[in-house]
Amino acid sequence: MKQPWYILGAGAIGSLWACHLTDLGLPVSLILRNQAKVDLFQKQNSILLAGQCYPMTAELASAPKTIKQLIITTKSIDTENAFNSIKNRLDPHAKIIVLQNGMGSQQWIQSQCPHAEVAWASTTDGAWLKAPFNLQHAGRGVTQIGAPDQTYTWIDDLIKGGFLNVVQDKNISLTLWRKLAINCAINPLTAIFDCKNGELINNPNYLSTMAAICREVELVAHAFDIDLFDGPLIEQACHVAEITAENYSSMLQDVRQGRQTEIDSITGYLCRQAKVQNIPVPINLAYLKKIQKVHR
Ligand code: KPL
Q1: How many domains does the chain contain in total?
Q2: Strand, coil or helix: 116
Q3: Where residue 35 sits, what CATH number does that domain have?
């Protein structure tokens, strides 16, 4: 009998992964927030994606079974609460994938379960929920999975087959740092100036602020011996802003909808790392505070 994969954080990306794992023939159980959600799910006992039903189960965090395989796809700010709600069910040697934006919670999860096999992941897939448990895969991307200084062969089982493009990443820390750096450059500015990503490169004032943010991020990365990209970060940030020119960043969407942003695990993480290295990052700190004022 195959062990189920539990999904903690059944939002769009969590649901996408639930379908991918089902497609791979693996049993999946969603851990949902309350009984009303479980009842709603049990009306269909599946997630609907592109006209196809992906059967799985759902349960509350308080369910009794031991969790041996877990994917954490909550927003980074919800990690501690969500994780604490299932901690007593977790096998000490569980396999865990942390698939979230930003940095900090990956290390926190590892510290909470030192004997678990914790892998980190980053995705460029886009998805949204049209209705509860009815998913739209909006943009096909790649999910990179790996563990710093470790190779877990079980990751291979999630790569062969299924409809998502998933690859092993031998340098997942660098991948997450790169994503963090781009997010530091684009997300807070779009959220404060209430603009599409593309406007950052068309407005000279926004562009010069983005360049200043990038220089600070590079200084912090270098202090940790991390070479982010072959060229300067600002070039990459401009490239991403250009190819996503018509998009509203995830942070701007959070601010507009009055939701908590992920600023603490993006710019907040960068500023904490800067403090460790004694590197001044005044522009990033200023945007951290501005966003925290609008909405944490
Ligand atoms: O990742 C992003 C986000 O919106 O969170 C992009 C579009 C790349 C901007 O940082």
Answers
A1: 2
A2: coil
A3: 3.40.50.720
Q: Are residues 39 and 51 in the same domain?
A: yes
**CA 65 to centroid of ligand 1, rounded, Å:** 36
Q: How far apart are CA 148 and CA 98, in angstroms?
A: 12
Record the tokens describing residue 238, joined without a space: 């401009």
Report the pLDDT value the prediction gives residue 296, as an integer from 0 to 100: 56
Determine the pLDDT at residue 170. 95
- List, in order, residues 6 or more apart from 34 with CB less than 8 Å away: 60
What number of other Cβ atoms are within 10 A of residue 163's Cβ? 16
Best residue among 176, 178, 197 to mutate for probing ligand 1's pocket (most ligand atoms within 8 Å of CB) is 197
Q: How far apart are CA 139 and CA 13, in angstroms?
A: 11
Q: What is the pLDDT of residue 269?
A: 98
Q: Which DSSP string do the residues of 187-220 spell out, in sequence order?
A: HHHHHHHT--TTHHHHSHHHHHHHHHHHHHHHHH
- Tell me phi and psi for residue 156, to 5 degrees: -55, -35
Low-confidence ranges of the chain (pLDDT < 70): 296
- Class of residue 274 by CB neighbours under 10 A (exposed 0-12, middle 13-18, buried 19+): buried
